[in-house]
Amino acid sequence: MRRISSAWLLATLAILLPVIVLYSMTVGTVSISMAEAFSAAVDRLFSSADSIGQTQVILFDIRLPRILLALLVGAILASTGAVMQGLFRNPLADPSLIGVSGGASVGASLMIVLAGGAVESGLLMGLSLVALGAFVGGFAATILVYRLATSGIGTSVTTMLLAGIAIGALAGALNSLLSYFADNDMLRQISLWQMGNLSAANWAKVWIMALVSLLLLVSFPRDSRALNALLLGESEARHLGIDVQRVKRRLIVLTALGVGVSVALAGMVGFVGLVIPHVIRLLIGPDHRWLIPGSAMAGAILLVVADSLARVVVLPAELPTGILTALLGAPFFIALLLQQRREV
Amino acid sequence: MTLRAENISLHLSGFDLLRNVSVQVEAGEVTAIVGPNGAGKSSLLRVLTGELAPTKGAVSFNQRDLNDWPVEQRAQMLAVLPQHSLLNFPFTAHEVVALGRIPHQTGTLKDTEIIDQALQLVDAEYLQKRFYTQMSGGEKQRVQLARVLAQVWLPCKEGEQILVLDEPTAAFDLAHQQLTLEIVRQLAEKGVGVVMVLHDLNLAARCADKLVVFDGGLVAAQGTPEEVLTEQLIDQVFGVKAMISRHPLTNKPLVIT
């Protein structure tokens, strides 16, 4: 497949992203035109607090945090996916391979079952108990996988993949066990959470996610060249002057943090971390200096679009976002694979 | 004494892979390591490049212990071409060779110039924009050779440079085998020390200043090709009856089996 210029792609995505965010502001159960949204924004900025209308509440307390959360979660899932695929030298790797998703879903289910009905009322700084459980579970699983794969001579990527699969299977079993003991209401909560849902977004969640995203997106570029070298193999990377063990540890911790927080705040949104880096790589090649920012922006766009659709496809109800990311992403991915097959 | 292994023993999962091996690789010289399969040639390369720590003995590089060099500085002086590459991502040839410039801070402009020249040198200019994953085995290996050449392209102020090649000619046709040996000779004339594993004794005799013959984890002989290549040694090490003659043009030893 022929490549397109990476500068061109990044520029296009950078223009597309804000346009899509603005358009997404107008989409939802209550339809708000661009002009109304604009005047509401002006009001919000320049008039006193007591004149807040319904439009303003919908736009700035419901939609905007939700869109921003979708944007950040999409960016983090896709960029950590790109990092994991590079680190594991496997274009089919994704963050769930290191155990984050499995561990997170056990943590979340456990909280839902233990805390029962108290879950949605027990808010702490906007972070529900479920989110906390998911984060702790995801991080613990990653550390377990990492420990299993690390011996005196370093971390074996192959062992880590296998350990990730084993921990994933274990997490699946624990999840089923928890579901088995859960009552109907808990069961519904568990399955809704696993579908990925952004409807519970608020500003506190956006701020947490923004801080984590900032940390990751500032840290990743300095390891881009190391990731490029790692594609040759670990000893080759070492011969190119890369401190492989340190780079690996740093990237795994950052990924566990990013994905753990994403999953905690937005549930399981699958597919973005696997497909987006793959698509971007097909378009501009595997150079991580462009692949990571490209994936971040494309992931943000996919999740904002998917979430906008989730708000309107089954009006007046809403679909969980995770269902839509897969519905949107899968056909696109299959089309790309077919095109690639024809050209090889 | 640029790269020196002293009394190296390597004991790995119950096997003695190397026993009391001492080898020196000098800057500006070509050292070829030969020997039957499983004799310990690749193990020695892995010890010399710091991939494996020897059970006994030490490796010194530019008057320091090999492991005392910071990884980045070491990479400016020591480049390694493995026998096989795991790369299965669609980098272009240009991008693969560019990886060889990672340890250096010479700037994009200078790097591009070096990458182009390195590709030209290994007869792989025409591969510039082609994807590594779609190349033939010989083309891939040439691109990898260009990558390690780019890594030691300019002299390093920290110390002498060494290029380590593990069976560089295995995937090549006759023309590219010759080309590789010419490149290696040129590099040695520029002052780089080259150490490589070769299987073809005649190629080794033609190109190397020094031969190291391995057998069963021990050094069976080392010295100039003329000193080392004898009918008795070849029978003893490889179990093959051979005749030693002289190449009519180069006057180097010629092994006829």
From TrEMBL, chain A:
Segments crossing the lipid bilayer: 64-84, 96-119, 125-149, 161-182, 202-220, 251-284, 290-310, 322-339
Keyword Transferase appears in the UniProt entry: no
Protein name: Putative hemin ABC transporter, permease protein
Protein localization: Cell membrane
Keywords, alphabetical: Cell membrane, Membrane, Transmembrane, Transmembrane helix, Transport
Lineage per the UniProt record: Bacteria, Pseudomonadati, Pseudomonadota, Gammaproteobacteria, Cellvibrionales
Coiled coil: none
Gene Ontology molecular function terms on file: transmembrane transporter activity
Major place of residence: membrane
One GO BP annotation of this record: siderophore-iron import into cell
Membrane topology: Multi-pass membrane protein
GO cellular component: plasma membrane
Family according to the record: Belongs to the binding-protein-dependent transport system permease family. FecCD subfamily.
Listed Gene3D superfamilies: ABC transporter involved in vitamin B12 uptake, BtuC
TrEMBL record, chain B:
Family in the record: Belongs to the ABC transporter superfamily.
Protein name: Heme/hemin ABC transporter, ATP-binding protein
PROSITE patterns in the cross-refs: ABC_TRANSPORTER_1, ABC_TRANSPORTER_2
InterPro entries the record matches: AAA+_ATPase, ABC_transporter-like_ATP-bd, ABC_transporter-like_CS, P-loop_NTPase
UniProt keyword Magnesium present: no
Domain ABC transporter: 3-241
PANTHER family: HEMIN IMPORT ATP-BINDING PROTEIN HMUV (PTHR42794:SF1)
Keyword Nucleotide-binding in record: yes
Annotated function: Part of the ABC transporter complex HmuTUV involved in hemin import. Responsible for energy coupling to the transport system.
Species for this entry: gamma proteobacterium HTCC2207
Annotated GO MF terms: ATP binding; ATP hydrolysis activity
Keyword line: ATP-binding, Nucleotide-binding, Translocase, Transport
A matching Pfam family: ABC_tran
